[in-house]
Specification:
Number of strands: 10
Radius of gyration: 22 Å
Low-confidence stretches: none
Bound molecules: 5-phosphoarabinonic acid
Distance between the termini: 53 Å
Helix content: 40-55%
């Protein structure tokens, strides 16, 4: 595993953590035995065959040939993971197709801007919805489908429409089937926020020119009970111990602006999996060094209701030298070396102030490592929720919002 977890500054005693390991292993086992619902994602990395990856890559190649824009419509787990991966990884080779995400808000201005961006250019649509009926996604689909029909006519529109949904009757599935759009199945036993390593995440990522095979290889390397033996679940354990000791918030902290959507993905994963039955750590995310000049004050001296989880990459991809003519003491040094000083500086300052800090790091960022990270956090999150006694795989609160909003829409 390329992911290192350092809990030496968590302030929690090692013997207390060790005392919880047996229980964490028992919860992990439940993910593998099939006794829980919605655990299809656990075995998915190796059940997702090379042929399935080839099929997605061939589809992505067709889209890149005939479309300048690939408009991905989805909300929550149906877009967050793909956006996180595309922001973090560079495409391999030339890629002139831009992936645009929509259908995750109700902003008319946002949709207008996308229409203006697309203009007369060729584009294809990907509609991603597990349920096949989500308001944000389906209303955006209605708008862009009309636009496409006016531009291409119904037959070419169907050829340019890609759908990822469950293989069962819904508005989206029935319409896409009737019109002959290309449908990729999302397994019935994989929930939205655990679906990034399925066509939900992989199709947009492949269109962006990123090697999805390497992502899946990374995920596959961790997809076993063995990979999470011993101390490998200590992160889930420590989170629960913090909660029991009165912490209410976990702040994910990044030092690279390209991680912003990875933070959003983590917030959804943990927030929607754990926040129920009146329980759960509230997941927040901050971007350093930017937020050290604002929220840094609160962290250092404000209400101590949180712990911090640093997520860092040891070797930066690109670096820039600051000229000798610049101000001392940073003249002649590189930006990324200074970034490391920010990481160490804030870690020291916060540790001295008694703030618990967990450090999660990877040696470098690439498709294989990111595949590991996605699977790693999904597993830690599921085990952590099970340790706290909640069902990680339902989201009755989200369903409640959808239902109430729908009654307002029907009354319009
Ligand atoms: O994790 C989840 O289940 C949710 O966040 C969903 O992904 C989100 O509500 C979108 O639902 P759907 O994919 O059915 O359109």
């Amino acid at each position: 595993m390329d992911i290192r977890v350092d809990i030496s500054n968590s302030g929690i005693d090692n013997s207390e953590i060790a005392g919880c390991r047996e229980r964490a292993q028992a919860e992990l086992k439940k993910l593998w035995t099939g006794e829980l619902h919605f655990t299809g994602w656990v075995k998915d990395p190796y059940e997702f065959t090379d042929e399935m990856i080839d099929e997605l890559q061939e589809t992505a190649e067709k889209i890149r040939k005939d479309s300048k824009f690939f408009l991905v419509l989805g909300v929550g787990g149906s877009f967050m993971g793909a956006k996180a991966v595309i922001d973090l990884l560079e495409p391999e080779g030339d890629n002139n197709t831009k992936v645009i995400f929509a259908g995750y808000n109700f902003s008319g201005r946002y949709l207008h801007q996308i229409m203006n961006t697309i203009g007369d250019s060729d584009f294809s649509i990907c509609v991603i919805s597990k349920s096949g009926s989500t308001t944000e996604t389906l209303s955006a689909y209605g708008i862009f489908k009309e636009l496409m029909i006016r531009k291409y006519g119904p037959e070419e529109t169907a050829r340019r429409t890609y759908v990822v949904t469950e293989h069962k009757s819904s508005f989206l599935f029935d319409q896409a089937s009737a019109e002959g759009a290309r449908i990729f199945d999302l397994a019935l036993d994989i929930g939205g926020r655990y679906s990034v390593l399925t066509p939900v995440g992989l199709l947009p990522v492949a269109v962006a020119g990123i090697d999805i095979r390497k992502i899946m290889e990374g995920a596959r390397s961790l997809a076993s009970e063995e990979a999470f033996k011993g101390e490998a679940l200590d992160y889930s354990i420590v989170r629960n111990l913090f909660y029991e000791k009165g912490k209410k918030i976990e702040v994910f902290e990044f030092f690279d602006p390209y991680c912003a959507y990875f933070g959003e993905w983590l917030k959804q994963l943990f927030g929607e999996s754990e926040g129920k039955d009146g329980k759960g750590l509230f997941p927040a995310s901050l971007m350093f060094s930017r937020d050290l000049h604002s929220m840094g004050q609160f962290l250092q001296q404000g209400t101590q209701c949180f712990f911090e989880t640093f997520i860092t990459v040891d070797e930066p991809g690109e670096d820039v030298q600051i000229p000798d003519s610049a101000m001392k003491p940073f003249a002649g040094k590189t930006i990324e070396k200074i970034n490391k000083c920010a990481v160490n500086g804030v870690a020291d300052a916060h540790t001295k102030a008694g703030i618990p800090v967990v450090r999660i790091s990877v040696p470098e960022m690439n498709a294989n490592v990111l595949g590991q990270m996605l699977y790693f956090f999904e597993t830690q999150c599921a085990v952590s929720a099970l340790l706290s006694g909640v069902d990680p795989f339902n989201q009755p609160g989200v369903e409640a919002y959808k239902k109430e909003m729908r009654s307002y829409i029907e009354a319009l």
